[in-house]
Amino acid sequence: MKGKTLLKWKKSDGLILTLNLGSSSLKFNLFRFGSLEKEYVGSIAGIGENQGTLEISSKENRQLIKKTFSHPTLDTAIKMLMEWVSSHINKSEILAIGYRVVQGGPLHVSPEEITEKLLIDLNLYSYLAPNHLPSELKLLSIFGKVYSGIPHIACFDTFFHKEMPSRSKFYPLPENYRENGLIRYGFHGLSYESIFRQLLREDTTVRKQKVIIAHLGNGSSLAAIATGIGKDTTMGISPMGGLVMATRSGDLDPGAILFILKQDRLSVEQLDDLLSKKSGLKAMAGTGNMEEIIEQSKHDQKARDAFELFCYQVKKYIGSFAAALGGLDLLVFCGGIGENSALVRQEVCASMEFMGVKLDHLSNIKGRSLISHPNSRVTIRVMKTDEELMIAAHTQRILNAK
């Protein structure tokens, strides 16, 4: 996959393509090399669901395409993206491609150029993220063949958490498991890095603050940050841990897993499918979509229970992380739910005035970026994360170092 570097690419007016494959979406951006200005923004949503949506906009936010289609698969999503890029962008303009990769095990954490050796290692570590890495490897393989001869960069979602202290990183299990990669990696790192960089641009003293970022979406997690370093996070070895999520269980008592195994005699694959695709909010309310849950909760107790459990767990982790940090100065909500659901933010922040968290309800309802009450000791923000920009920035940095 690693090919010859294009001559004089540093002086070129070319593009960086970023690919961000999630559990049900494929986001792609084209950035202008140097300025990292976005030329095109696109996404294919609904992968694996009954209906998908393709949306592409230009840098002027002018919508170029918006269409729906039935039963989208990863293969159809990749094909649609490939067809659009090849028909609208001259192949020689693309200088490099950056990918979000969920994790690379204990050996690969920092962003790096994709080589055959890295691909072999990622295949070996697929068991650590069986619902993510195989699909990401397919994406890497297809684009690597079509766009050979240019650098391809893997940006790992575990990078932000690389400096977590041992007390946050290691499980209390026999050491041989740790040696085989069983540690707490943490995820949503590109999102946390994006938010923290935005905060630093506004005020460099944020490095001295105690910060909690709540990335709430289809997959959800929280990160605790002090001295500019990630100190703890809710997800562990896989993106299934921590908070209850749309279709993922979040943390479970080991006894609950043993109960399931003994009662249903599930295989490892069946258990993984249950905990990652058939659990969480969907198991409780019949849907993992928070907007639908909020609407249904008006007349459905199961939906109400799901909503309350989600908010309760977010609140609980904020409290525990604040205790671990020794205080809290700044709380940030981001992600699809964190950014767009005023009701979730309201429920999470309710009854937290004892620790200095007080919401300004009007600002929250209006969706303002600053939603803390003037009397709140803790600043509460709503921010838009930009994982794709982080992928582009890491890709450009590696290109500049070549």
Structure commentary:
This protein is α/β, with parallel strands linked by helices and 402 residues long. It has 2 domains: 9-156, Nucleotidyltransferase, domain 5 (2-Layer Sandwich), CATH 3.30.420.40; 204-382, Nucleotidyltransferase, domain 5, CATH 3.30.420. 38% of the residues lie in helices and 20% in strands. Strand 4 (51-58) and strand 5 form a beta hairpin. The longest helix has 25 residues, at 301-325. The protein is globular. Mean pLDDT is 94; it is low at 2-9.
State the secondary-structure class: alpha/beta
Total domain modules: 2
CATH-scheme architecture of the largest domain = 2-Layer Sandwich
- Please report the number of helical segments: 15
Q: What percentage of residues falls in helices of 4 or more residues?
A: 25-40%
CA(first)-CA(last) distance: 16 Å
User: What's the main sheet like?
Assistant: 8 strands, mixed
Mean pLDDT: 94
Shape, principal axes of CA atoms: globular
Beta content comes to 15-25%
Spatial strand arrangement across the major sheet: 5-4-3-2-1-6-8-7
Number of strands: 13
Q: Residue ranges: pLDDT <50 for 5 or more in a row?
A: 2-9
Instruction: Specify Rg, calculated over alpha carbons.
Output: 21 Å
CATH superfamily placement of the largest domain: ATPase, nucleotide binding domain
